[in-house]
Design brief:
CATH superfamily of the largest domain: AhpD-like
Distance between the termini: 38 Å
Number of helices: 6
Shape: elongated
Number of domains: 2
Strand content: under 5%
Largest sheet: none
CATH class of the largest domain: Mainly Alpha
Length: about 120
């Protein structure tokens, strides 16, 4: 990894955010390339907001937008960094009241699924 290569920095940030290494089996192109070269090093690594806060904001936005695949990935990252389910459920209550009940309920269902995976739930 080179410190100045944005894709390498993005992959490192990806791992911090999502709690796993990026999939290197797929070519880095399109949106994936922009994620590694811009989103993760340029947005997630900004100093103005702690990673934990960025995570909670992102979870709310993904739930509000009905983006289940990305919500699931970010919930796994949150879980791997020790953000407890009860705090995630509080986020989903906010989502339900500001983005609609179905969005909050769907977000809660996905969160409970991700957090229950270890226990077989």
């Amino acid at each position: 990894m080179t410190e100045n290569d944005p894709v390498d920095r993005g992959r490192a940030a990806f791992e911090r955010v999502l709690g796993r290494e990026p999939n290197t089996d797929k070519p880095i192109q399109g949106v994936r390339e922009l994620s590694y070269s811009h989103l993760f090093p340029g947005v997630w690594d900004r100093p103005g907001l702690p990673l934990r806060d960025r995570t909670l904001v992102t979870l709310a936005l993904l739930a509000a937008g009905g983006r289940e695949a990305q919500l699931r990935a970010h919930l796994k990252g949150a879980k791997s960094r020790g953000i407890p389910l009860d705090e995630i459920l509080e986020v989903m209550i906010q989502v339900a009241h500001y983005a609609g009940w179905p969005a909050g309920m769907s977000g809660q269902v996905v969160a409970e699924s991700v957090y229950g995976e270890e226990e077989g739930g």
